[in-house]
Amino acid sequence: MRKLVVNEFISLDGVAQAPGLADEDTSGGFAHGGWHMPYMEDELAMQWVLRSIVEAGGFLLGRRTYEIFAAYWPNASEEEQVIAEPLNTKPKYVVSRTRPELDWQNSSLVEGDVVQAVAELKREDGGDLHTIGSTELVSTLLKHDLVDEFRLMIDPLVLGGGKRIFRDDGLRRPLRLLDSQVASTGAILATYAPAG
Predict the structure, then answer these.
(1) What's the pLDDT score for residue 34?
(2) What digits encode the pLDDT tens for the residues 110-131?
(3) Which CATH number fits domain 4-188: 3.40.430.10, 3.90.420.10, 3.30.300.20, 3.30.1330.30?
(4) How would DSSP label each residue in the chain?
């Protein structure tokens, strides 16, 4: 049985929308795309992100995150190959309400009921599944208690609104801290597991 690990870059007020690019996701009028990138200018943060990507047995991605990654990582620069190689070669399971074109190597569509399909993927042998970004998918996984670990890079920044992985659903979800470090940028690198 393998774990499902959620990897997210979030602001201090919990926003995870469009961390990488200005035009990554402007839905809802979000105007702060690319907010996270200055906090990646730290060796500790880079190694933390790289470790999660390298140790993953595969990736579970929402359609939008998949499309962003598939457009970039197969053509990544030589300097980025340390991240690109595992992303390009490891299995990628894509959750989508539509049937997107999956032309990035080792990609497959999660068919049928998402909750049941993800539970089945977790029961398989192999390395842990890692979800990156994919706020809608993560919300679904949380709702159905499918997340085994959170790896959060919490940036010292308040965005005032945007998509969050932790929704206002009135549910209490205690977590226990497994590990934490602080980057030179002030970002907190924290790993949590459900406490219940």
Answers:
(1) 95
(2) 988 999 999 999 999 999 999 9
(3) 3.40.430.10
(4) ---EEEEEEEETT-B-S--S-TTS--GGG---TTTTGGGG-SHHHHHHHHHHHHH-SEEEEEHHHHHHHHHHGGG--GGGHHHHHHHHHS-EEEE-SS-----STTEEE--S-HHHHHHHHHHSSSSPEEEES-HHHHHHHHHTT---EEEEEEES---SSS-BSS-S------EEEEEEEE-TTS-EEEEEEE--
